[in-house]
Amino acid sequence: MAGKQLFDKKGLQSRILSDQVTGKEKWLGYLAGPAGALLLNAVLGSYLNAYYTDVLKLTHIWGGLFLALFPVMSKIIDAITNVVMGQIIEHTRTKQGKARPWLLLSAPLMAVTGILLFTVPNASETVQAIWVMLSYNLFYSFAFTIYNMSHSLMVPLSTRDTTKRGGLSVFNNIASVMISGIIVALIFPMVVLPALGVDKSKWILVMSLIAVIALPLTLIEYFFTRERVTEEQSGQSGKTVSIGRQLKLAFSDKYWIILLLYSFTYFFGNNIKNISLLYYCNYVLGTYNDGFTQTMVSVIGGIPMGIGIFAVWPLAKKFGKRNVTLAGFILYAAGGAICLMAPKNMAVVLIGQFIKNTGGLPCAYVFSALLADVLDHMEWKGGFRIDGLTASMNSVITTVCVGLSSGLFNLLLALSGYAAPELINGRTVAAVQNPATQNAITACFLGVEIVTAVILVILLSGLSVEKVIHKEQAEIKARQEGTPQ
């Protein structure tokens, strides 16, 4: 009751008053707002493991098992908290919605726990290991879970209009693909990483700044979004549906199961590629923090993402979101295969990355719109929404994939004899990795995603929800209005 009264206060109400999606909503709520948290997450996804292996030098603790097992165990905890958070969202009832209020809480939590990730004390390996485990779970299993679960529902709960929803999906992903991509993939390898080296104090300063920036931007996302779909149901019975009924509905529907398998396959491949990118550019394709190799891979490979802002949604509207995404993954696999033919040849790798990322455009920009269609379909089928459950399962999958990919990659590094760089007289000196380590890194960066792309093509061939969604939405509206169907 106190929570409801809190969000009734004028100062905490949404600044979006229109019943229709507005430009302010797109630019602030779905582009600028999410940029902070998504940037922080992207930086951590790309470089936190390097901080553990190269700066803290934890690779060979417990014979290499620590960095192999702790991410997996942590993500099991994270998966549990995701399920709990999904049900908390489903039971939340405020005038500001059921997901948006949690964005407000997540803003300061992400800032504080993001800083704790890097302020590991100079102590024994045991103390450092304990700090790493605690800070990692405080951020991922608690703070970021609250944000990510809420954020992932903003597009599906924003509006019923599939065209407007698709536009919001594009804006939402620009924040991730473009803003975080420019900083994480270009500025970091070209300027930041060479300056940081393995100097712990510099890492703490830079990463703390990024964590702090996420706070005001997440507040912007809260104030400039609106849950119109939730508001439709505000006058209906406040009774909640049991988790058993939700699960029964979910696992009886092929579209929902396809999206579940799609998420697991895509995020596993994407995570293992992201975590191995820095190592691939440092030890296989180029030299350690040369300020050139990773920048070139990111620039040439990332050009399609910039062009795609203007091209992908018109193509999706003409040919269908599923069809364009499916065709994209065929191109994605082809680009990866080209890279794998000559993984140490810069020209070949750049051509392959350009083709690969062109194929990845639809997935990057329209997945949220596909998810929203499936959620509306589930409401039509069962008579109730399962937003919280779906967000929980999707988040469980993404978190488990992070743990599995991190654990597998770190285990391969340890088993193949990875040698971390050293700080000698204030200068970072890197070792030349042996062939086994180079092959393991190459397989992770290039090989895994070829396999996952083929699997995704097969899965998407069965996702035909777009053929029925408009009819089903009309029936949902008729039920709400009490008119004959």
Give the topology.
Layout (H helix, E strand, L loop, with lengths): L1 H7 L14 H33 L10 H25 L9 H17 L8 H27 L2 H5 L3 H35 L3 H24 L4 H5 L10 H8 L3 H32 L7 H27 L1 H21 L4 H14 L1 H22 L4 H30 L5 E3 L2 E3 L5 H26 L8 H13 L4
Antiparallel strand pairs: 1-2
Helix pairs in contact: 2-7, 2-8, 2-11, 3-5, 3-16, 4-5, 4-8, 5-16, 7-12, 7-15, 11-16, 11-17, 12-13, 12-14, 12-15, 13-14, 13-15, 13-17, 15-18, 16-17
| Rg value | 22 Å
Number of helices: 18
Q: What are the secondary-structure elements, in order, as H or E?
A: HHHHHHHHHHHHHHHHEEHH
What is the tally of beta strands?
A: 2
Biggest sheet strand order reads: 1-2
Work out the strand percent: under 5%
Helical content band: over 70%
Mean pLDDT: 89
Distance between the termini: 37 Å
Shape summary: globular
Helix and strand composition category:
mainly alpha
Query: Major beta sheet, specifics?
Result: 2 strands, antiparallel
- Taking pLDDT < 50 over at least 5 consecutive residues as the criterion, the unreliable ranges are none
Give a brief description.
This protein has 485 residues and is mainly α. 76% of the residues lie in helices and 1% in strands.
Architecture overview:
The chain is mainly α. 76% of the residues lie in helices and 1% in strands. It is built from 18 helices and two strands. Strands 1-2 form a two-stranded antiparallel sheet. Helix 7 packs across helix 15. The longest helix has 35 residues. It is globular, with a radius of gyration of 22 Å.
